[in-house]
Task: inverse folding
């Protein structure tokens, strides 16, 4: 009896896990806010893939990969949480003015290639591999060098 119950539980968990992710190439599978974000900041780039992550205990989030290699993550409301442009520059409009001033003053010869928005901070990766952390007001917190 225990084996049957355990097998049934495992089968249910596998079904739930297998149906948790959905892949498409349609912008329309994203929340309206995410669609507007792509239109505003990446108007010329085509969507290569949209991955919809449905979590059991967590809300849905979205991973978008553009055909130029840029990866963007959105939360369940369609708000961006991460933009990774690989070797290209992150759109400057996504970076707080205070952070832009700090970077132009201290790192004038590099560009921001990745930005992550956390609940209490921003984490930026520069083209030379340096990672900078700022609070939500744009005040510098720490720096981590890529080894």
Result:
């Amino acid at each position: 009896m225990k084996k049957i119950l355990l097998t049934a539980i495992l089968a249910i968990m596998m079904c739930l896990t297998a149906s948790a992710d959905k892949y498409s190439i349609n912008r329309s599978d994203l929340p309206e806010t995410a669609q507007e974000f792509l239109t505003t900041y990446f108007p010329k780039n085509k969507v290569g893939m949209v991955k919809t992550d449905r979590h059991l205990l967590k809300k849905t989030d979205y991973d978008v990969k553009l055909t130029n290699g840029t990866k963007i993550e959105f939360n369940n409301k369609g708000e961006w949480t991460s933009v990774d442009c690989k070797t290209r520059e992150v759109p400057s409009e996504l970076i707080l003015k205070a952070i832009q001033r700090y970077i132009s003053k201290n790192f004038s010869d590099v560009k921001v290639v990745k930005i992550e928005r956390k609940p209490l901070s921003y984490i930026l990766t520069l083209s030379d591999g340096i990672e900078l952390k700022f609070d939500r007001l744009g005040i510098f917190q720490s720096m981590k060098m890529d080894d």
Summary: The chain has one domain: 23-144. The chain has three helices and nine strands.
